[in-house]
């Protein structure tokens, strides 16, 4: 994810993707330790990750959020 509000919480991200179930969230931070507007979000299945992409450019608060798929069906 990119473009998140700097004060976004993991709960905000979970709500953004609801009803999909998020399995893990890592909010990215800059060298100073402050959030930088990015996050990695993990889902249990590739299909859930694909479904999550339907939220690309939706808004959290006043900011639109860009999503990037980093998943494949075969993760061997």
Automatic annotation (TrEMBL):
UniProt keywords, alphabetically: Repeat, RNA-binding
InterPro entries for this protein: ESRP, Nucleotide-bd_a/b_plait_sf, RBD_domain_sf, RRM_dom
Keyword RNA-binding: yes
Domain of life, per lineage: Eukaryota
GO molecular function: RNA binding
Domain RRM: 1-76
Listed name of the protein: RRM domain-containing protein
Originating organism: Pagothenia borchgrevinki
